[in-house]
């Protein structure tokens, strides 16, 4: 289960209540709980509303994987 959803439900809050406490839209809460990426400022607002320290953000928001650019030799093979 999504950690944000679990924390929200543990507090007995609806998505609308979390959105109000975090100062963001319910639509954003829904998107975050679906695993969609969001801005750092949004993460801060959500974690603060939930009472979760910023240092634990990686436990609540999985880091996006960096895209690896192909090397010059890989590009040459394609050509």
Characterise this structure.
The longest helix has 11 residues, at 40-50. By secondary structure, the protein is mostly helical. The mean pLDDT is 89. The protein has one domain: 434 Repressor (Amino-terminal Domain), CATH 1.10.260. It has helices at residues 3-10, 15-22, 26-33, 40-50, 57-60, 72-78.
Q: What's this, in brief?
A:
With 79 residues, the protein is mainly α. It is built from 6 helices and no strands.
Map the helices and strands.
Layout lengths: L2 H8 L4 H8 L3 H8 L6 H11 L6 H4 L11 H7 L1
Helix pairs in contact: 2-3, 2-4
Q: Which key phrases capture this entry?
A:
mainly alpha; 434 Repressor (Amino-terminal Domain); 58% helix
